[in-house]
Amino acid sequence: MNIDALLDTALARLHDEGRYRTFIDIERRRGQFPHAVWTRPDGTEREITVWCGNDYLGMGQHPAVLAAMHEALEATGAGSGGTRNISGTTVYHKRLEAELADLHRKEAALLFTSAYIANDATLSTLPRLLPGLIIYSDALNHASMIEGIRRNGGAKRVFRHNDLNHLRALLEADDPAAPKLIAFESVYSMDGDFGPLEAICDLAREFGALTYLDEVHAVGMYGPRGGGVAERDGLLDRIDIINGTLGKAFGVHGGYIAASARMCDAVRSYAPGFIFTTSLPPVVAAGAAASIAVLKDATEIRAAHQTQAKILKTRLRGLGLPIIDHGSHIVPLIVGDPVHTKKLSDMLLENHGIYVQPINYPTVPRGTERLRFTPSPVHGPREIDALVKALDTLWSHCALNRAELAG
């Protein structure tokens, strides 16, 4: 078997389809967010503006977060020293879990090294804890949710995206006595649309199902204290398990679930993805706890974030560019072709100092390739003007359609 030839064939296929992904060298510099420095392949540097980051609120640069991390680094050193069961549980981990439980008004929280692992580990473990469990999953759920459900060996049902009638039909078709869980998201990151949380909770109550909500694109940004869409909509008490991330709005790293103390204890005790993984470094846990504490009181940051997103969408819509607007902070601009999407991304970077990665299949369906912008509270008028003018110029240069999509 010629392994190299097989690998070359697989990579060539991505190149031919225009969806081969490249990494660029970016250095974020403290105090300059959303600006960064791009090191070109020839070694020269250029200042750029990052428009596709998930540090939605700039908390990765916040003085309180940096101070907490410096303090923990000096106190404890770099790593955690092991898994949580061996030597990797510290006061920093316990403090962070307490902050998260309080944020979501739950009895407990459980830390993981990423929200991907939190989803995968929890959803793949639940059927061991609840024999005969049937999981009903939204068709557009995160890959981590899909993978966890696929690996658990239990029964699964996939309902059409946000289609309550389809979900009801699936629930009605199954044994009423079987344990059930509905897995869904609050904000779907590629289109920026919201899940119908209250209606799903109503169905869950009617059919005796647990609710599992992925809030990774909402924690920190929605709700009076940043507890997500469930907090904003007054539904925290109706969500059984909440999945969240520390690597987006909180600006650090890691993931978690928040649930009852009994649920967290059971997942902690049975999930291999938790048991056998080295815990987060204390310095990371300290920074995340500080970020959460700050954002619980920072309503002005959340308001500024939403304002900047609205301004950008209004400006792009005024040019007739095909954005999708579901009222969230995410601004998808549909290009519809992988080659054109990559070309636009390259020209924005090289000619305008604007960094936004192309989003292609399989992340989104073919024909819906896009640029996905994530404005922050500190993407001000200067940054927005530069982006809008660059997109207007390049859209004309590439002779792309300016027909607006329905939201």
Describe the structure in your own words.
The structure is a single chain. This protein is an alpha/beta fold and 407 residues long. It is 42% helix and 16% strand. The chain contains 14 helices and 16 strands. It has a seven-stranded mixed β-sheet, sandwiched between helices. Strand 8 and strand 9 form a beta hairpin. Helix 2 packs antiparallel against helix 11. The N and C termini lie far apart (50 Å).
List the secondary-structure elements in sequence, H or E.
Answer: HEEEHHEHEHEHEEEHEHEEHHHHEHEEEH
**Compute the gyration radius: what is it?**
22 Å
Estimate the strand proportion.
15-25%
The largest sheet, given as strand count, sense and whether it forms a barrel, is:
7 strands, mixed
Number of helices: 14
Shape: globular
Which structural class should the secondary elements be placed in?
Answer: alpha/beta
Low-confidence stretches: none
Mean pLDDT over the residues: 95
The span between the termini is 50 Å
> What is the number of strand segments?
16
Helicity, in percent?
40-55%
Strand order of the largest sheet: 4-12-11-10-7-5-6
Describe the structure in brief.
By secondary structure, the protein is of the alpha/beta class.
Topology, element by element:
Blueprint: H1 3-16, E1 25-28, E2 35-39, E3 45-50, H2 63-76, H3 91-103, E4 108-112, H4 115-129, E5 134-138, H5 143-151, E6 155-159, H6 164-173, E7 180-185, E8 187-188, E9 193-194, H7 197-207, E10 210-214, H8 229-232, E11 241-245, E12 255-259, H9 261-270, H10 272-275, H11 282-295, H12 299-318, E13 331-334, H13 338-352, E14 354-355, E15 358-359, E16 370-373, H14 381-397
Parallel strand pairs: 3-14, 5-6, 5-7, 7-10, 10-11
Antiparallel strand pairs: 1-2, 2-3, 4-12, 8-9, 11-12, 13-16, 15-16
Helix pairs in contact: 2-11, 3-11, 4-5, 6-7, 13-14
